[in-house]
Amino acid sequence: MSDTARESPAAAGGSGLSDDERAELERLRAEAAKARPRRRLGWRTPVASLLIALGCLLAPVSVLGVWAANQVSDTGRYVTTITPLISSPPIQNALTDKVTNEITSHINVTGYVNQAAAALNGRGLPRVATLLQTFGPPLANAVTGFIHSTVQKLVTSPRFATAWIQVNTVAHQQLVTALSGGKGAVSTSNGRVTIDLAPFINIVKQDLAARGFTLINRLPPIHPTLALFSSRTLVQAQTAYRLVNDLKIVLPILTLALLAAGVYLARSHRRALIGAGLGFAASMLLLGGGLLIFRGIYLNSVPQSVLPSDAAAAMFDTLVRFIRQGLRVLLVVGLVVAIGAFLAGPSATAARTRHGVAAGLGWLRDVGERKGASTGPVGTWTYAHRMGLRIAAVALIGLIFVFWGRPTALVVILLAVVLLVLLGLIELIGTPPTARAAEPAGPG
């Protein structure tokens, strides 16, 4: 049999191979199978995912911790938080009604009218006494209306706003004491957390006396209170305050460390960074939802007779507005990081975006060079050190964000735009070295 005849069955299926040839073929197939890369999950992916998930879960708690430290424990920021309340119409109406009721309940105009009528009757003037008693209720209503209008003018005046700031500045330490379990001007009474309004009563008494209503000077010291929230909420707030205040520094550091470790351990750093950014943004949305739920709990815990619902809502919204501002900022930060990591990836969209930007910058650079605006050695140096310059630009924007003080979501967006401009300038100024044209070869 010819060689061609022997090779045909081997090519057809290997049935004509000898035992040695068949064994050699199997060995080659086995080596080829071993050489193929095997997709193994390993430990890095699940550990990295767990670390990123823990960091995202701790992020809302970190925000609350920073808020507790900056807004509750810091007198200046607390006063900044509480100051807009005195300009809120629901709070102004609640204060007006509360102060007016306290003053009129102690004046007792009807009692004074009855005493005067009895004195007139004892002096032989029964008709005058009867006439005075007849006009007693209208007189009491007129006095109440006068006091109410006076209090309302005071509550909406700059003088009262100044007193509001002064009183809250002094009372801030008592608030911290109440949150930490102590007693002070901010205390618990009948299952509610209250604040003493005596300083505001004194302002009203001074103004009424200056207007000629000297009867107000006979009143004893009055200490009415304004309910802030229920004591059940206070117990929860005290527990959270103690826990979060102890961890106010540890939690943010731990959150960033977990996210950074998760991105570092992941097989694909870019995908992990995208996941971390989106997860971080989602955690801020979760915090926003939690605030809405807690807002409903708070409003339901304050009876209408103690504090009107509109005033309670204004008080809650004012107190937590910095938390809402902070979560909006961090939500935008998470989205910016995720978008940046996505655009740095190999996807078709990211590649087209980068190519379009690079083409546009290259066109601008070529136009400038044709018009004589060459970057010269600066452009060559920028191109050679472009990676370091990119890192420096990112670090600079990061430092500006950290030390900004109270950045808003708009500030984050503007910083992201500035970073894009800086990176674009690096690409625009950087001029790649021009390759020398190959010299034509001379004749043999």
Structural overview:
With 444 residues, the chain is mainly alpha-helical. Among the domains are: 3-35, no CATH class; 64-229, no CATH class; 346-433, no CATH class. The chain has 19 helices and three strands. The protein has helices spanning 3-12, 19-35, 44-72, 75-82, 89-107, 109-122, 126-134, 136-155, 158-179, 198-210, 231-246, 250-265, 269-301, 309-319, 321-343, 348-370, 376-384, 386-402, 409-429, and strands spanning 186-189, 192-196, 225-230. Strand 1 and strand 2 (192-196) form a beta hairpin. The longest helix has 33 residues, at 269-301. It is elongated, with a radius of gyration of 38 Å.
Mean pLDDT: 75
Sheet/helix structural class: mainly alpha
Number of beta strands: 3
- Report strand %: under 5%
How would a crystallographer describe the biggest sheet?
3 strands, antiparallel
The radius of gyration is 38 Å
Read across the widest sheet, the strand sequence of neighbours is 1-2-3
Question: Summary?
Answer:
The chain has 19 helices and 3 strands. With 444 residues, the chain is mostly helical.
Topology at a glance:
Elements: H1 3-12, H2 19-35, H3 44-72, H4 75-82, H5 89-107, H6 109-122, H7 126-134, H8 136-155, H9 158-179, E1 186-189, E2 192-196, H10 198-210, E3 225-230, H11 231-246, H12 250-265, H13 269-301, H14 309-319, H15 321-343, H16 348-370, H17 376-384, H18 386-402, H19 409-429
Antiparallel strand pairs: 1-2, 2-3
Helix pairs in contact: 3-12, 3-13, 3-15, 4-9, 5-8, 5-14, 6-7, 6-8, 8-10, 12-13, 13-15, 15-19, 16-19, 18-19
